[in-house]
Amino acid sequence: MALRKSITEQEFTSLINIPQSGEELIRIYSLSDDDIIFIKASCRGKTNHIRVSVLLSYMKFPGIIIPTVFIPDERILDLLCNQLEIDKSHWKDYDNLAETRQDHINILRKNYGYENFSSTYYTDSLFNLTKFTLQTDKGILIAQQLVKFLRDAKILIPRISVVQKICSEALINAEKQIHDTLSSVLSNHQKQLLDTLLNLQEKSSISQLNWLKQSPQAVNSKFLLMHIKRLKTIKDIDLPKDIGKDIHQTRLLKIAREGRQMTPQHLRDFEESRRYATLVAILLETKASIIDEIIEMNDKIIGSLFRYAKNTQAQKMQESGKSMGEQLGVFFKIGNALLDARETGEDPFDAVESVISWEALAQSILEAKNLTAKQNFDSLYFISDKYFTIKKYGGEFLKELELRSAPVAEDILKAINILIDLYEGKIKRLPEKLPSSFIRKRWEELVFTENGIDRKFYELCIFSELKNHLRSGDLWVQGSRQYKDFEDYLIPSDRFTEMRDQNGVPLDVALNVEEFLSERMELLSNKIQIVCKLIESNELPDSSIINDRIKIKPLENTVPEEAEVLGKKIYSLLPLIKITDLLKEVDQWMGFTDQFTHLKSGNKSNDKNFLLTVILSDAINLGLRKMSEASPGTSYAKLSWLQAWHIRDETYSSALAEIINVQSAHPFSSYWGEGKTSSSDGQRFATGSYAQRTGNINPKYGSGPGVQFYTHVSDQYAPFHTKVINVGVRDATYVLDGLLYHESDVQIEEHYTDTSGFTDHVFALMQLLGFKFAPRIRDLNDKKLFIPEASTGYSALSEHIGGTINSKKIIQNWDEILRLAASIKNGTVTASLIVKKIGSYPRQNGLAVALRELGKIERTLFMLDWYMSPELRRRVTAGLNKGEARNALARAVYFNRFGEVRERSFENQRYKASGLNLVTAAIVLWNTVYIEKAVQHLKEQGEEINEELLQYLSPLGWEHIHLTGDYVWEERIKLKKGEFRSLRKV
């Protein structure tokens, strides 16, 4: 296997850079008393003293021998001279002192034990890197580990070519070891079955392996069964039970990703151990994806059944509306006739007959009975109409999922096993005594009838509750990623105990629950008292109390008219530019395309124009085939190859971080904020074509299916994170993801969302993870406050208090709360996954309840701040407005194909969202740079600019950017480094 370049020269330089922190410099380059004595004793003269001290300092860190002609860092020189009490003018280059210099080096090596790198240390270095390279294949991380080993061993760092060779060889050795580990446990029969995956399917033009990798084309029983067939195919290979458990999951995923991009022919050409290892990795990854997709498909089918039942009920109610009116009219007349008969003494039977015949009355009563049947008032009765949808795949679905349960869900697991026996014919009918503790009250009348258990409703109830229990984690599936045992998501209990005992829990809160609660409760009590006093004295800022409801004065438009005039003038000066030229120019500034490295080799793409074409096709929603037609000289095959090998979630994230970092560091961005606050919001895009069948429906957005791109935007307008989310899931589930998992240098302290972005659980986790949380909550008066303990001292807020905080629950579950938060912080589990599971837990679950109680404290504190602080309300509104304005830009960029998401696979949908976010970030950066140029131009023209107005400018305009037309990457328009385009003339 050929060696490849593992790190770049720039990365190598970063390894031997001098620290920037003053504290680090002092720590590393302070001389001990023994050092000073040795330096002064080893040579004569102040010049030699300072030369020896500099040589020693660079040997210590970064671990090199400085070259003959060398100028040391001024800060190090100052530090050493101060300690030696020598004027730094004594420093001179070593041009004519080679022998003396070598003597100094030899003296230092002998006294301090430093060694030059040699072939002996080459072997030692490889051995030291073995374990590390089994965990990661990132060259820079491996090089950092190598340099650390050499420094610790007092071995001087060799030249870059040697470092590259060691890292590359260590990577190759690790890959070979992983391949051998995965392939050596396979039997000959298993290897034969793996080889058959590379053959074409019968009567098909695709291989068995490619068939396994296909996503379901639609959400229905037919395609769910086909997906189950894929799962069974993988199971039939019968891979060893724990295969891959000893391989770091990052490396296993990397092998799988590489293999998925290979053709069957390429895989056949691999050396045997690599071929089988790659196929195993692909199958393990594919199996987990299939299991999760099967569960998600079932969830959507169950959801569609409930929608059908609700729509059917509504339709029947509408159809029977006229009959209901007629029957009410009849009974109204009868009632009046009977009342009149009572007054006059007339025979009531005669009174009834005067209105309606007895035959007609009997018919009317029968019709009324039908109209008032229970199914007309509970849609659940109609769900049995679709029972056969479930029955088509139910048996296979339950049998192939390896379900496990927590004690609380044992009853439903028993019921599932009975259904499996029923489907397989092991039993002919349901037993008389059935597990039923999981059956909710709403289902009871449908399941338990006069004639016994209704199988249809019993089975439908099981599938409905199975969905809920999988979401909460009370049931889990072996081999799944999204639905595995809740404990597997968290730091192991014994490891967490060790972390807590060693004060290593990565949370900036008091670990002692009494101390934590005492501080929060005292703060809560004080704020409630302050708000009560303000209400009683009618001094609540910009607020009034009407009928015990707090009415907050709406915020007025705070953008001065002069700022709008200035904004128009500034934008009229910005150069007209094509989107292709804009992207090329931004790339010239910081080379964000360098982050799109090859999946296998890690090399940068040599075809930057083609790479930018692929990125732009994602951003403008054109698709590769149409993009190739709109880009002269570009082939679909080339674009497709670049997308397969260079476009990934991590490369998009790294490239975005490059742009965000440059924009955030630009001096003009400081007019908009410090980069410490942010907002997030979901932007819905309809799904069309094939994707329409896999989209989700949320009544909030109408009856059509769609997906959401959920984006985090800093106060400097930088869109630093985006994620594709299900429109049917509350936004709050994903708020923390953007704050924790972005790769930019942005350091967020306070975050804003709208109403859908908060839950009490999120409030609690925000506090534990070190973020201030400030959602704009709709109908705030309807949200209750919670107090530390029952008290009559809060009469001014009595109508708004919903109860007291259950401190006992928090105390009982405090260690589990900390373990959960620490697991999120450490990256053991993603925040969104755990928030979704915790939110799905039944109310009696101790951890969920305790976290909710903690969230009530934080939400109440926030609501009290909201009542008291107009500045907080303005800050939140301004932050959310920036996010909404960014969404308008995104909508303008993502204009092709009616702005619909048409990619069926979730992976390709993510690429669309990432490409769109990357291009909007590039527009924000380009606008930031040229807005500053335009402001400077106006100043140079003698126009007085009010600095206070600059905060109201926005880098989100696009009127000057040509987003349509042929996408040509002009080579003739190439700006030199430091050059910029000319502004327009007004």
Would you mind describing this structure in some detail?
- By secondary structure, the chain is α/β, with parallel strands linked by helices.
- The chain has six domains: 9-159, no CATH class; 181-287, no CATH class; 322-373; 402-484, no CATH class; 561-657 and 915-962, no CATH class; 674-899, no CATH class.
- The strands form six sheets. Strands 10-9-8-11-12 form a five-stranded mixed beta sheet, with helices on both faces.
- The mean pLDDT is 90.
- InterPro entries: DUF4158, Tn3-like_transpos, Tn3_Tnp_DDE_dom.
- Pfam families: DDE_Tnp_Tn3 (PF01526), DUF4158 (PF13700).
The count of helical stretches stands at 39
The structural class is alpha/beta
- Rg to the nearest angstrom? 35 Å
Tell me about the biggest sheet? 5 strands, mixed
Shape: globular
Ranges where pLDDT stays below 50 over 5 or more residues in a row are none
Could you give the order of strands across the largest sheet? Answer: 10-9-8-11-12
- Total domain units: 6
Task: Work out the number of β strands.
Answer: 15
Mean pLDDT: 90
- Cα-to-Cα separation, first versus last residue: 62 Å
User: β content, as a range?
Assistant: 5-15%
Give the helix proportion (percent range): 55-70%
Domain Tn3 transposase DDE: 581-967
Family: Belongs to the transposase 7 family.
Organism: Chryseobacterium vrystaatense
Protein name: Transposase
